[in-house]
Amino acid sequence: MKRIVSLLLMLAMMLSIISVASFAVAEEPVTLFCVIGKHAGGIPASRDDDFVYTTILDRTGVAVILDDLQDYYNALGNRIAGGEIPDLMYVSPDYAQQLASQGLLRDISDMKETATWQHIMATYGEDIDIPSNYYGEEMICIPAAMALGDYYYEIYTRADWNEKYGLKNPTTIDELYEYCKWIRDNDPDGNGVADTIGFTCWGLTGLCAITAPYDVAFGNYLLIRDGKVTNTLLQPRMLEALETVKKFYSEGLIDPGMFVNSESKATTFSGKVGVVAMPWSNMDKAKYTEQYKEVTPEAQYLPIEAFDAGEGPRYTLAAHDIYVGDKMVVSADITDEKYEALLKVLDYMCTEEGEMLVYMGLEGRHWEKDANGEIVQIKENAAETNYTHEYQWMGRNDARYLALKFPEAAHSVEWGLRYNPLEYFNSSVVIDPDDYDLPTMEDYVKTQLIAFFKGDRELSEAEYGKFMDELYNIYDFQTYMDIATKQLVDQGLANE
Predict the structure, then answer these.
(1) I need a labelling partner for 121 at 20 to 30 A (CA). Which of 37, 46, 233, 251 fits?
(2) Are 28 and 341 in contact (CB under 8 A)?
(3) Residues spanned by the domain of 330
């Protein structure tokens, strides 16, 4: 009898276990809906092909539905207006402030009381907990160590033309002018047509190849000089920089398509340009090198020294706070269940496996360790990982990441890191949209600087003074500078 009872109890226990197991298998995963800006080579069209999605789901039980949107901010704004607010949104610090001011973001300060926070700090360092993560006392952005994109911009010349024609790389702005004139006038591609261009660049930022040596950038950039907060627009050599760029532009030495990044890139890849100020990521990644060599097999672009305008060479712009950039924010409508799921995903991303997943992909398929224990890419499958950066919600260690991901570009990455940049402090200042309309002011600044060097607006000291008066009187520029100065002084970055 006891044996029968024991068997019945055992059977009941087995049925219970089977029932629980069946429930666990059948349980639906928690789903997080996340939107990002659409990039070339974005996330796979089918989630079945998204190995990051499937791995996170397998490891955490959380389904991260990532959607990349065209015309991102307009598309996101339309979703929000329609009441379709995503759980997670990847936005700029300024846009995060705007959303927070509308009550659309969750205060995630309570994350600091969790083990997840400790894991984030241990992985990325306490210095990623910075002012731009906050709206007042509320933490609204997931801390992130952002990519060091500012040193992506490098100056390249056609090394094959230099060798063929005995040209020397320019080392000063004057030498750059003469070099670009030679490229324009001497048919270096030998096609019998006057169609070569001296200089092209990646928009106004790329023009820093010419303007940074004057301690100037074309745009609204906060600087600190002798302990005081100032602005590129107020720099004593701004007129010199504008006059120099106007000289290049008016004589046809600058690609007129430079204002559209895709056109500048197309000009470069056509083999028609002598000097290129371009992100290394558009030149030295294997897939892009292959593209321009398909058109001009002999083309060889190599980065060169920065130009000197009398006070030493500067290469490009660089934000003072390297950890500021687009951040992931959380909808105010997110449920507690989804918030817990988010913490679980962030926890996983802090593990070595999770970090390598969003850096390099899957071990054994996309990367492996060689005999010395060094991580090496499995090149035949490397293209499958072109989208993994979309999941780098907490940023990345760029020095490590770029060396692993793009070994063919190691020379250019190292080259860019060693230069003294024009350091600006905009990203250390948080502008509440209720206090100041920064985007409108910055748009006006860009249009007027372009008008000056294109000749659409007279370039003179008097006219530039009139432009600054417009900024102060119409766009309340002094209020912006006062806000910026107070914050930078409070952070100990400036004295006044």
Answers:
(1) 37
(2) no
(3) 28-147+325-393
